[in-house]
Amino acid sequence: MRAVVQRVSQASVSVDGQVVGAISEPGLLALVGVTHDDTPEKAARLAAKLWGLRVFEGATEASCSDLGAPLLVISQFTLYGDTRKGRRPSWIAAAPGPVAEPLVEEVVAALRRLGAKVETGRFGADMKVSLVNDGPITLIVDV
Prior knowledge:
The chain is of the alpha/beta class. It has one domain (2-142): D-tyrosyl-tRNA(Tyr) deacylase (D-tyrosyl-trna(Tyr) Deacylase, Chain: A, 3-Layer(bba) Sandwich), CATH 3.50.80.10. The chain has 3 helices and 6 strands; from the N terminus they run E-E-E-H-H-E-H-E-E. The protein has helices spanning 40-52, 64-67, 97-113, and strands at residues 2-15, 18-23, 27-33, 71-75, 118-120, 127-142. Strands 1, 2, 3, 4, 5 and 6 form a 6-stranded mixed sheet that branches.
């Protein structure tokens, strides 16, 4: 599994002009991609990593778990796009929807079991994401 994680001061995702998920306070936006060999165990490891990432400023670096900061998790198959050849990305490494959707849902469920407040996008939808990147801090997390 792979996530592109941004520390944000706020973020939202809309489908058909309607907001389906939003955080209005400092937290993390995580775009999550799934490949063919991913498992529920990897989803749980990614959730734990996101919950514990120490990217917030303070007396010491703090994590979402330290601050109770929210997360906005959005599925993103394009994270496994291969652009090494030509100008058109290949999506072969991205898991198909029936494989990917339950694993993205497991990341969300695992975060909630850890105590996180989590908002989400809508799997497979044409989503519009708005965010205010704080820092900016953007990380790629692979598990």
